[in-house]
């Protein structure tokens, strides 16, 4: 493989930034907020950043690049498709649970739903992600679609997958910002308390994770080599 060592360095870096993102989200909710719970209160809301960072960012990112891991190239393509679809299914379920947590929290506290740009773009991303998963399953995993249809839909599948992933990162950055503005009153966000520094840093970590995944996923020379019978 051309540039194998560079690929490994980027992969290890992405895993590091991914793990750190999840760790920072957990430190945020456990050390600075109310922890996790399912009680209609803040501890229920806190599932939202934790599950989005773990599922919709980290697991989705790994799902995007599974085809590019060189040691999987000797495995059957069908197996890697199952892993790609399986990881994306786990990410979708975690994203949906994280939305239920927010709506439940809002309704329990009489906070309006779906007024912010974060919520508009975030819900759109979850809906398109689910459509992408169902379409990808029907066209590329089930054995019914003809090769011509697969070939014509593949560029769209790749483009929409990368667009959704980038949109999720952007939406998470909006979410971190609005949560800090809502939650930090005394001391105010504008005085840069430790929680603000931690969550601003979390935003940087997910952005760098996203940048690494998008780079690895878009280098043509790191593609899985085509096989005779897939
Ligand atoms: C698949 C598969 C591919 C692509 C190709 C269309 O389902 O395994 O390699 O679609 O057939 O680009």
Provide an overview of this structure.
This protein has 230 residues and is mostly helical. Helix content is 75%, strand content 0%. The longest helix is centred in the last third of the chain and has 37 residues. The two termini are 20 Å apart. The structure holds ascorbic acid.
How is the secondary structure organized here?
Blueprint: H1 4-32, H2 42-45, H3 47-65, H4 77-109, H5 117-141, H6 147-183, H7 194-218
Helix pairs in contact: 1-3, 1-7, 3-4, 3-6, 3-7, 4-5, 5-6, 6-7
This protein binds ascorbic acid.
Bound molecules: ascorbic acid
Note the run of SSEs as H and E: HHHHHHH
Helix content: over 70%
Quote the average pLDDT: 97
**What oligomeric state do these chains adopt?**
single chain
- 3D shape: globular
**What class would the helix/strand composition place it in?**
mainly alpha
Low-confidence stretches: none
Beta-strand content bin? under 5%
Largest sheet: none
- Span between N and C termini? 20 Å
Tally of individual helices: 7
Rg of Cα set: 19 Å
Tell me how many strands there are: 0
Write a brief structural summary.
This protein has 230 residues and is mainly alpha-helical. The chain has helices at 4-32, 42-45, 47-65, 77-109, 117-141, 147-183, 194-218.
């Amino acid at each position: 493989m051309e540039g194998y060592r560079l690929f490994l360095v980027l992969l290890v870096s992405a895993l590091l930034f991914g793990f750190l993102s999840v760790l920072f989200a957990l430190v945020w909710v456990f050390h600075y907020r109310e922890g996790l719970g399912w009680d209609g209160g803040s501890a229920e809301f806190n599932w939202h950043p934790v599950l989005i960072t773990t599922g919709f960012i980290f697991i989705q990112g790994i799902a995007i690049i599974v085809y590019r891991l060189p040691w999987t190239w000797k495995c059957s393509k069908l197996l890697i498709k199952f892993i790609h679809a399986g990881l994306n299914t786990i990410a979708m379920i975690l994203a949906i649970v994280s939305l239920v947590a927010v709506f439940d929290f809002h309704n329990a506290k009489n906070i309006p739903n779906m007024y912010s740009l974060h919520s508009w773009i975030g819900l759109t991303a979850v809906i398109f992600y689910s459509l992408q998963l169902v379409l990808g399953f029907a066209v590329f995993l089930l054995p019914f679609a003809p090769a011509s249809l697969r070939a014509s839909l593949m560029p769209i599948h790749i483009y929409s997958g990368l667009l959704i992933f980038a949109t999720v990162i952007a939406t998470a950055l909006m979410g971190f910002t609005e949560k800090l503005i809502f939650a930090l009153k005394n001391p105010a966000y504008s005085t840069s308390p430790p929680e603000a520094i931690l969550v601003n840093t979390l935003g940087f970590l997910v952005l760098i994770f996203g940048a690494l995944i998008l780079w690895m996923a878009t280098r043509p020379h790191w593609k899985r080599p085509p096989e005779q019978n897939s």
